[in-house]
Each structure stands twice: as C-alpha cells, then as structure tokens.
Amino acid sequence: MQEFKEKLLAHVEHIKxxxxxxxxxxxxxxxxxxxxxxxxxxxPFDPQKVKAEYGxxxxxxxANERVDYALFSDGNPVMFVEAKSFNEKLTxxxxxxxxxxxxxxxxxxxxxxxxxxxxxxxxxxxxxxxDESPFLKVNFDALSExxxxxxxxxxxxxxxxxxxxxxxxxxxxxxxxxxxxxxCLRDVDQEFVRFVANRAKLVAKLTPRVLDTITPLIKRAVxxxxxxxxxxGLSAPPVPFNTAPxxxxxxxxxxxxxADPSNPRIITTAAExxxxxxxxxxxxxxxxxxxxxxxxxxxYYTVLYQGKVNRWIVRxxxxxxxxxxxxxxxxxxxHKTGIAKRGLVLGTGGNSIVLDKPxxxxxxxxxxxxxxxxxxxxxxxxxxRNNKAEVEKTETGE
Length: 398
Known about the structure:
The protein is α+β, with helices and mostly antiparallel strands. It has helices at residues 2-18, 25-39, 94-102, 145-151, 161-186, 190-200, 208-235, 270-283, 333-341, 365-376, 382-396, and strands at residues 50-55, 66-73, 76-83, 109-113, 117-121, 136-139, 258-260, 263-268, 292-296, 301-305, 312-317, 324-326, 352-354.
C-alpha cells in the first residue's frame, strides 16, 4: 500500500509538470491517463488487461460506438474509461459514457477523466443503467489520503465489482447523511430541538413554550459542541494511513462486557452491547429508542421490540467462529440479493446471516425494517393468543 501511495504522489507531481502541455485528448491519454492505469496495474501494454477503442454499441440507438478504454479482469470487461482533454470540463459528457455502460451488462464501473480529475459511476438505482451522479470524484490537484485509499480498490488485483458497488452505495448514503447533518447544524429547527431534548431527558413535557425557551440554548450548545470537536480533532494524534480503527471488531473480553448478577454464565459482551446501540440508532425516528430492548441468555442475545420476548427483531449468536444473526421473517430472494451485494453471506441453511462485526448490521437495513414491521403487526400474534385461549378453555372445562 505504501508503494502504491508513493506512485500516486509521484503522479501528482507528473501532472503538475506536463499537464499544461496536454492540449489534445490524445496527448492527455498518452501523458496522463495511461500512466495512471499502469499505476493501478492495468498495464496499457497488456491487451488482456486494457483494450483501446472497445466496441460498446447500444442496440437500436447508435452503431459503431467505441469507448476509449475497457479494463479487463479474468477475461471479462469490468470497467470503461472515457477520456477527455486536460482542459476540458467533465460536466456534460456523462450521457455518452452512460450509453457505453448500458450496452455491456458485465461492466460494473465506468469512469470519465481529463487526466487530473476522475469521476466514477455505477448502477445503484437501476441494474445495468448508469447512475446520473458519480459515486466518487478524485481530483489530483488536491489528492487526499482518503482518495488514495479509495483508489486502491480499483487496482487490478483488488478489483471486486460487488465490493465496489457496496462501497459506492455507502458513499452515496454517507454524502446524503452529511448533507442532512450539515443542514441540521446550520439551521437548527424544532424537530432537531425536540430530538436533542428527548435524548437529554431533562424536560418532562415539551410544550411549545418550552421548545421556544430551549431552542436558543440548543443552538449555542451545537456551536460549542462543534468547536470542541474541532479543537479535539486538531489536537488528537493523527490516524495512520491505511487504518480504520472505527471499523475494528470490538474484543469480546472488553471491559464493556457485563455479567448478569443472577446468572454468572450469562455475560453480555461488548459486541452485543454495540449491536443493540446500532439498532437503537437505526430505528430511531421509526420507533422510540426505549422500545428497542436487549435481552441476553446463555445461548444467544436478542433485541426485542417493546421488551416482548415473542416480538424479537434479531437474535445474535456471537459465541462462535462466525457470529450469526437470525430474524423472525423468512429471507426473500430480494433480501438475499441485497445481502450478497453488500458483501455479506448467509449462514448454513440460508435463514441466518454471518456478521463479521456488529457494525455489519448497518448493511441490513431492509431486513431490519422488515423484521420491525413484522413485530409491529399484531396479526402475526393472533394465532398465539387464540391458542392460549383454547388451552385455558380446555383446562377450565368450558
């Protein structure tokens, strides 16, 4: 990884040196684009990896269309690259790239570049139909360590279409979440005030008068919190490149583990507590977080809806080499397709999902919300109540 990083930094300097000489598309290809493909180990001198002027005709629309470069892996095209001259803006050329992308079902990623900026696209909204917006933009005029880490996923030996699609989906979600968060912090509205007040649990009843009173206080608290986070972030030791500690699995012997005083064989692990915390956050706004309750047993950990043992959202079996999550609903083919796209696998029998770490539950939002809806539907529990009533009648002789 360090060698790859050094090559990218050298390429940045190369662009600064020769970029202004690239006045035509062909010069840009030879001086900037092909060297970058070579850094990604897609050697332009190997026709098994890179083919120029690759045929990409969309039936019934245009004939004899050719994309500038098709990148190949295991004998199949996996990525298209459309080239523009160094000084050309990329804004108005996505339609041409989309035609190439849509014509070839095996291709999962398409890119357009002028040598110094790269825009990467995939098909999150409709299968085999290129999205209008790129999931990743990388500008070599301002290359960051995060950009380098993301570009590493496009190397020949690391190119995994399913993982890139999952990465693209997470990038889109992250950008949308960031926009919402920034909007909330810039313009603190009443809904945000109510959210903060409810989480703080300082006010019993949020009347309009109370909301008007605490709104300016929360606005100042938001400003102070942001300032504190900025200062803390600047003073904190730098995170080494190519590490992601926030995604590291929580050790099972963490000090956060909690033993049940009434049964020492029941130990709620840090991973189980993390799972509960994540689910509370995921479902917040749909249900009250207090209605999402964790319950541990000797065999598994359960997250319940409203604390009712028969209304469980997920059962987590973490005491094994591959932790498993079970759900009260039958996993449909649509669920299974989504699970695979997000880089997760089914457990034995197909009714469970392997969770390598608690954070992976965030990739299963469709399953989680369907499980919650099942728990909220009283009709799913009518038979249970009717059976109980029949037993009572039999016992009393009625």
